[in-house]
Amino acid sequence: MNIQTRPDMLTTQDEYPTRLPGEERLSRRKDPVLWSEWSDDAPIAKAEAEHYAENGYLVRRDLFDADELKMLTETADLLREGGGDVPDADLIREPDSDAVRTVFRLDQHSEAFRRLACDHRLAGVAEFLLGDRVYLHQSRLNYKPGFAGKEFYWHSDFETWHAEDGMPRMRAVSASVLLTPNGPHNGPLLLVPGSQGVFISCAGETPKDNHETSLKEQKVGVPQPGTIDRLARDAGGIASAEGDTGTVIFFECNTLHGSNGNITPDPRANAFFVYNAMSNAVTAPFAASAPRPDFLANRETPEAIRPISGRLVD
Amino acid sequence: MNIQTRPDMLTTQDEYPTRLPGEERLSRRKDPVLWSEWSDDAPIAKAEAEHYAENGYLVRRDLFDADELKMLTETADLLREGGGDVPDADLIREPDSDAVRTVFRLDQHSEAFRRLACDHRLAGVAEFLLGDRVYLHQSRLNYKPGFAGKEFYWHSDFETWHAEDGMPRMRAVSASVLLTPNGPHNGPLLLVPGSQGVFISCAGETPKDNHETSLKEQKVGVPQPGTIDRLARDAGGIASAEGDTGTVIFFECNTLHGSNGNITPDPRANAFFVYNAMSNAVTAPFAASAPRPDFLANRETPEAIRPISGRLVD
Hints:
Ectoine hydroxylase (chains A, B), Phytyl_CoA_dOase-like (chains A, B), 4-stranded antiparallel beta sheet
């Protein structure tokens, strides 16, 4: 990485210290949530921008037509079954079985999903939310099977990306594209509205190669129950992001989220893209001895996306 | 137990063989679901009786007033904290912690809950549903904490009560009284409507002292995923029984049910009473070498309840 071209990266002061000895500590966020002023040519409505700024997430529906959804779900099925010749290094399997839970570097294993990642409905919105050109920090296909889908405990993605990947500031947003219907009982994304405004400096140092276990069950970098409880009460309760196939959930990098397990017969799948501002490209980790591998954090090719308009299929 | 007084118990032919070597097998239920003809003096509405017969469960709301609910929830809190001097033999704790998950023989540890068990709103309805006088086969307080509430996989209670407790026929009903609000995300009771009509003869013999592990995580006597999937599709999907504190969920002994885990801050608690018809008292287990202990299956004191009308508090 040539830092000469990004003078803003020459200073990498740690604005969000975490994984410290002693107690968990809370501090106010130092960055905007919404980095653009809304105007008539914004890619989302004013009420949507306000909802995102206030709650740290935004659910958008009916963005894709039936042909586009068919193409995406069929492509996802092929990838999950190994049809994309995905190398083992880019796969995560369920703790108790061989079922594929995650395909990493999704944009590199599929032309269709690369096109989706660049779509104006995702990347265009991300540019607006972050007030900058964007690149993919991470991309993946998540698959949560029926009957045995495991829970994922509350966490802030930013806390991990800052500590273990070296992401300097809160200027990233995730977009989750639902590839199955996601109702209340098959493990929908749960969020703590407003939690994006608080940085939780987690207690405890990062173990070596933490990512090898944290992707299955995160144990370091998670907030205390009392803290989650307090933030949830402040927000008037937990929010749940549910919807039909094709629903897109944008959530800010510091919004606390998690999901329950799923004993129902209905599996859950989604395509997940993390957009980071070009001005916020990763540096050395702030609280880990070595950065996580490239499939988790794009360190080598932060290439600005040119958002593409139009349908995904001809 | 003096079988002279119950000549119906002299024949204990096994109408529902289970825990057999080889494959799981399905058969039609041989007993009615609703054992009474509805009439104007029934304790539930005609539509409720029909819903129960068709779906295998019934949710009833707003049965108790604020004073009654306050008394019940305060009593439950005391019991959970050990204030009722509950012996360890009647407690089940969470797999990963010391938190109390279940208090068995609830009616014996609490006068208030004994009164509730005998209440016309519960026992009176149970008499109607079962077309007989009733006794308590089992009673317990369930507590599912926030953040770490564990899932409970799909199962038919009758399958276990028949195999391990010797309950001859499908003539029992459970009543779950919610002691906390129970929404979609804190582990509500999930049910497969219509599944009460099918007996699933489960594959595999019962291990010795199976109940010592099955109460935390049931591994024997559970249906195959494909079977649950098919029954759920027949029903048009899974049902969820949610409600405010005081909601009562009646579910037939053979209705498939389970619950997801709960990462939300909101705990769940309920008082759980199993009413069995006096004519259906337990015999020797049909598929286990020894009966389960008395706290799980009342073998010694099948005393007919006299339903009590009026409020729980003065």
